[in-house]
Structures are given as C-alpha cells and as structure tokens.
C-alpha cells in the first residue's frame, strides 16, 4: 500500500507527498511503474501503478471515486486527534489503508505566534486537514483565535476576501499548491521556502527556511524601515525648507543675506550624509 501510494505521490509537489516518498525509500520499497497521473486539487492524487488504479486523498476523494472507506474511519479519527494528517488509499477501487503524516511543531512556531499576538495581530488557521487534526495542532501551538478546517483552495481565498471586506489587512503564510489562491488574494502573501514552486510564485515574500520566526522579524524590519523613511523625509524637508527660501532671497531685503553656492552644496551633501547614515541604522535594528 505504501509503495503504491509513494509511486503516485512521487509526481506531486505537496510537502506531504515528499514525506510519503521518503518513508517508502527508507523502507527500501520498490515503486511500481506509474501512468495516467492526475492531481485533484483539494482532494488528492491518482494514477495507475503497474496497471492498477491507485487513489490517495481525503474522504471527499474517496467519495468522488465511489469507494466506501468507513472501515478506516475509526483509525483515521484516532490519528487526527493526535494532530496527524490522514490520507486514505484506494487500490483497484477498494480501500487499501491509510497513511498518517505528523509534522512536528517547532518551538519557534509557538514563540512566533505569541510574538505576533503580542503585537496585536489576530491569528486565523486555514487548513484542508480534518477538524480534529486542526484543533489538535491549534491546541498544541496555542494563540490561534479562529480555526477553519476541511477547506478547499477556493475556500481559503474566500475567507481571506471576507476578512478584507470587513476592513482587515491580511497576511497569509502557506507552502502548498492549495495555498496559492489564498497567497495571491492576501494583502501580503508569505510563502515558505520549503514549499511548492507555485506557492512561492503566488506570494510576495518568501521565508527561505520556512520558519515563522522569520515572519516576526520581517514584520519588525518593515516597521523599522517605514519609521526610517519618515525620519529621512523629515530631515530632507528641514534642509530644503530652510535652504531653498534663503537661496531664493527671502532674507535679503531684511538682512542682505544670500546663500552662497558653496554653502548650498555643503548643505546638500550634509543632507545626503544624514539620510544615508540614518538608513544604515537599520543594520543594528533589534528584530
């Protein structure tokens, strides 16, 4: 069953597919010959392995092909309660078993969520996983304000649109093909560098290590950059606001003072030096 599933998942870009393929390789399983591979977005994948139809995916995928996977329901729910994602496998039109994939939660994820919450952000989880899996992960991480499970790609994009319609500015972090529409719809799409190419192409920013802690640093750097820009604009207006009127002769009728071209040149150089020096302070920003 694992060999058949790995043969099909080997053509998928999904991170969970890579885990299944790696498990088959670790077990030194021989993968069969694959034909007619197809990906059903939000459901799973399918293909023919050594002439047999192999379908991998969620319960909706099994329902699509008319396979009754009720015999696997109890075991699947048990894994989901432990926070694992469950994929059902059908071979030749019959339920063959299930594959549970558990992604260890990084300590940095908990710290990142806590830091974002402390800065006043509302955290929403959008996932295609089952409700039990999503709730288990939410409980383990902590700090999740709202959980939406069992979503298709268009559902994620729709929820982001609903949040935006209420006036929210939305940053979406994701790594899979199913996240691409939501990443494109968000005000800021953040792709994990460990994710799929289509997710990276759909996002405006990529975290090379796939670590949420980098998202916290990126947000703090963005705020520091905007603060620095406002400071630089202030310095420029001060220099030009004083220098230009004097150079135009505003004070000449009263004091006979005109701005020497040498002084004007020095003032412009000092203005540029001040702006550049202030910008370089970002190198020492505490993120």
Automatic annotation (TrEMBL):
Gene3D superfamilies per the UniProt record, alphabetical: Calcium-transporting ATPase, cytoplasmic domain N, HAD superfamily/HAD-like
Pfam assignment, any one: Hydrolase
Cellular compartments annotated: Membrane
SUPFAM superfamilies named among the record's database cross-references: HAD-like, Metal cation-transporting ATPase, ATP-binding domain N
Descriptive protein name: HAD family hydrolase
Record key words, sorted: Membrane, Translocase, Transmembrane, Transmembrane helix
Transmembrane segments: 233-252, 258-280
Top-level division of the source organism's lineage: Bacteria
């Amino acid at each position: 069953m694992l060999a058949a599933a790995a043969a099909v998942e080997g053509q998928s870009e999904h991170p969970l597919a890579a885990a299944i393929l790696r498990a088959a390789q670790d077990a030194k399983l021989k993968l069969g010959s694959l034909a007619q591979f197809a990906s059903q977005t939000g459901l799973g994948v399918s293909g023919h392995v050594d002439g047999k139809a192999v379908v991998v995916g969620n319960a909706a995928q099994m329902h699509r092909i008319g396979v009754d996977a009720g015999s696997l329901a109890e075991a699947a729910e048990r894994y989901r309660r432990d926070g694992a994602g469950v994929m059902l496998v059908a071979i030749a039109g019959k339920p063959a078993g299930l594959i549970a994939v558990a992604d260890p939660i990084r300590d940095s994820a908990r710290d990142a969520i806590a830091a974002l919450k402390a800065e006043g952000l509302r955290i929403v989880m959008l996932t295609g996983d089952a409700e039990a899996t999503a709730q288990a992960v939410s409980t383990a991480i902590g700090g999740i304000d709202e959980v939406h499970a069992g979503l298709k790609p268009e559902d994620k994009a729709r929820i982001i649109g609903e949040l935006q319609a209420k006036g929210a500015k939305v940053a979406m972090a994701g790594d899979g093909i199913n996240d691409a529409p939501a990443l494109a719809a968000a005000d800021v799409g953040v792709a994990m560098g460990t994710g799929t190419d289509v997710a990276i192409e759909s996002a405006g920013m990529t975290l090379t290590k796939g670590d949420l802690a980098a998202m916290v640093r990126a947000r703090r750097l963005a705020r520091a950059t905007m603060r620095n820009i406002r400071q630089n604009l202030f310095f420029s207006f001060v220099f030009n606001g004083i220098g230009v009127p004097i150079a135009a002769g505003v004070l000449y009728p009263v004091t006979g003072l005109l701005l020497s071209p040498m002084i004007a040149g020095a003032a412009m150089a000092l203005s540029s030096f001040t702006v550049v020096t202030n910008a370089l302070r970002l190198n020492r920003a505490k993120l």
